[in-house]
């Protein structure tokens, strides 16, 4: 991925949770290969025995790749699905996704009715961003009587920003093959309604839910979805009716209580909403994260007073969560209490929201016409928190750049690096600013100095390697730099993108594709999308490239690399081009 400045500092105000599907069930005891093998003279010869022993010993030593290969070899020889399942378990620990997928597919071939390999293939497809492949695996699992959890899959796809139209249409086609009385019909219909609603087809979703309610009126999941749809449509009254119906069916499900609180807030009934949130707190006890989430809910509905009441008990505790200070600072700022807000912001300790708090503080001072005070505050905070000095300096540079005072920003960086030449974060920032200014030689000099002091700095390795790969020069050095970065940070999306782009530059688009798919699954970014589309096009997979392009054009309002690709490959937009 192209080197870039540090990402913009954002104030996080949402809580999130996700569910994952385990790779597979615990491995059963390894079946005795002799039970199904030919006689010793024709079956478990020296080679077969050696494969099994090598696999077992390799697994005990932690050499999971060799263990996987040994079990796969033995499984092919003896046709035993238990051995392939063991290979899949070993491959899981190898952290080699291609090896794991090979084991899963071999397992599916040997045990076509088994559910384990389908669950594994669905998880792998999700990891590389192949939502359609994941759905196919879940549908196959559902057809075999397994727990496809299609509604859960739809919720995850919506949450992760997947491209929904092909998933919606595939589920619609699947529903047409199912009788309404089929056990899995209800789950598939709920999933389809979720995707219809998220795609803007609210009327279709509501009609589908009405039919489901006639068939299974006592399903809490149905009423939860109806409540959520009504909330999204700002139909507070409808949301309240659905939430009450669901709560009557599932009185211990707190999601309905929360939906009721949200409905009351939409209706402007703050006191009624407080009754519901008090009920949640009473049920769950003194739970800090719950108080924070509820406070955010009130703030979203412009109700600061109950939000403050929820937050103030937290700052009296010994372990006050940092976001409580951040939210209270925001409430004070909204009410014009600038100095009170600054007191809250400056109490946020080093950690996840430390910089967000200082950002809010300096923004507040800037908006009040006190920008010099904002810079003084940052200088004082660097003295108070020396461990955060580099990040605070980065923040000041960004603020100066925003005000088109780049010369002052450059002078500040130069001055700080003169005092602290070993500061990797500041040197990396100066290198990236040079890159954006088109000063590649200056960028290269800073990155090489950074790597001289810290040879294993993955960011610098990747930035320098990507620059060479993108400019199609010094590809051998780019290989060394990016490969080392990948060894240090194998799950870093930017590094995976760089590795894929390097393979493409080396003339190996087949090798590039898995890295780019994995990068896009981890970070659906317009730059990664542009690389992925170009590689798919080069491989002759034009329909897939155009599908990815359509998704990217819909998803990204600003997409310079995709626009550049279309300038170079206008046939991407020409449907008459095969």
Q: Quick summary of this structure?
A:
The protein is mostly helical. Helix content is 71%, strand content 0%.
Taken as a percent bin, the fraction of beta residues is under 5%
Residue runs with pLDDT of under 50 for 5 or more positions? 4-46
- Total number of helices: 31
Number of strands: 0
Helix- and strand-based class?
A: mainly alpha
Mean pLDDT: 84
- Characterize the main sheet: none
Q: Name the assembly state.
A: single chain
CA gyration radius, whole angstroms? 28 Å
Topology:
Elements: H1 46-61, H2 64-78, H3 81-94, H4 97-110, H5 116-127, H6 131-143, H7 150-159, H8 165-176, H9 185-198, H10 202-215, H11 220-232, H12 236-249, H13 254-266, H14 270-284, H15 288-300, H16 304-315, H17 322-334, H18 338-346, H19 354-367, H20 371-384, H21 389-402, H22 406-419, H23 424-436, H24 440-453, H25 458-470, H26 475-488, H27 493-505, H28 509-522, H29 526-538, H30 542-555, H31 560-568
Helix pairs in contact: 1-2, 2-3, 3-4, 4-5, 5-6, 6-8, 7-9, 8-9, 9-10, 10-11, 11-12, 11-13, 12-13, 13-14, 15-16, 15-17, 16-17, 17-18, 17-19, 18-19, 19-20, 20-21, 21-22, 23-24, 24-25, 25-26, 25-27, 26-27, 27-28, 28-29, 29-30, 29-31
């Amino acid at each position: 991925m192209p080197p870039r400045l540090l990402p913009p500092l954002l104030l996080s105000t949402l809580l999130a949770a996700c569910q994952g599907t385990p790779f597979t069930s615990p491995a059963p005891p390894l079946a005795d290969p002799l039970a199904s093998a030919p006689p010793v003279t024709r079956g478990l010869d020296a080679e077969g025995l050696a494969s099994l022993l090598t696999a077992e010993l390799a697994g005990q030593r932690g050499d999971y790749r060799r263990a996987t290969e040994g079990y796969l070899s033995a499984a092919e020889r003896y046709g035993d699905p238990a051995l392939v399942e063991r290979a899949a378990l070993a491959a899981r620990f190898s952290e080699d996704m291609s090896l794991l997928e090979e084991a899963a597919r071999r397992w599916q071939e040997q045990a076509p009715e088994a559910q384990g390999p389908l669950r594994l293939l669905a998880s792998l497809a999700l990891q590389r961003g192949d939502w359609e492949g994941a759905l196919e695996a879940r549908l196959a699992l559902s057809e075999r009587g397994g727990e496809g959890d299609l509604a859960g899959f739809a919720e995850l796809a919506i949450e992760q920003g997947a491209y929904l139209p092909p998933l919606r249409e595939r589920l619609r086609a699947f529903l047409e093959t199912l009788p309404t009385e089929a056990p899995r019909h209800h789950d598939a219909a709920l999933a389809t309604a979720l995707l219809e609603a998220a795609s803007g087809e609210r009327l279709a979703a509501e009609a589908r839910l009405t039919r489901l309610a006639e068939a299974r009126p006592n399903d809490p999941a149905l009423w939860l979805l109806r409540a959520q749809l009504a909330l999204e449509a700002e139909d507070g009254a409808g949301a309240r009716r659905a939430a009450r119906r669901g709560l009557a069916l599932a009185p211990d499900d707190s999601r309905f209580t929360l939906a009721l609180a949200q409905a009351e807030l939409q209706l402007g009934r703050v006191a009624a909403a407080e009754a519901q949130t008090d009920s949640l707190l009473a049920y769950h006890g003194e739970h800090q994260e719950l108080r924070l989430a509820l406070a955010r809910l009130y703030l979203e509905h412009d109700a600061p007073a109950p939000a403050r009441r929820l937050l103030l008990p937290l700052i009296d505790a010994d372990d006050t969560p940092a976001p409580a200070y951040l939210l209270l600072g925001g409430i004070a700022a909204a009410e014009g209490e600038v100095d009170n807000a600054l007191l809250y912001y400056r109490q946020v300790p080093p950690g996840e929201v430390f910089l967000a708090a200082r950002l809010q503080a300096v923004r507040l001072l800037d908006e009040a016409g006190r920008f010099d005070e904002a810079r003084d505050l940052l200088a004082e905070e660097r003295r108070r928190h020396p461990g955060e000095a580099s990040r605070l300096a980065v923040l000041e540079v960004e603020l100066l750049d925003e005000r088109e005072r780049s010369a002052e920003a450059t002078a500040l960086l130069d001055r700080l690096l003169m005092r602290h030449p070993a500061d990797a974060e500041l040197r990396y920032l100066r290198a990236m600013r040079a890159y954006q200014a088109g000063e590649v030689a200056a960028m290269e000099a800073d990155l090489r100095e950074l790597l001289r002091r810290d040879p294993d700095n993955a960011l610098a390795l990747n930035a320098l390697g990507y620059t060479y790969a993108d400019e199609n020069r010094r590809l051998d050095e780019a290989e060394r730099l990016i490969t080392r970065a990948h060894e240090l940070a194998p799950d870093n999306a930017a590094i995976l993108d760089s590795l894929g782009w390097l393979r493409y530059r080396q003339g190996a688009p087949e090798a590039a594709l898995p890295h780019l798919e994995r990068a896009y699954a981890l970070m659906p970014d317009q730059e990664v999308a542009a690389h992925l589309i170009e590689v798919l096009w080069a491989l002759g997979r034009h329909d897939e490239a155009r599908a990815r392009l359509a998704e990217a054009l819909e998803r990204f309002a600003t997409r310079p690399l995709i626009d550049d690709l279309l300038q170079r490959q206008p046939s991407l937009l020409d449907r008459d081009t095969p």
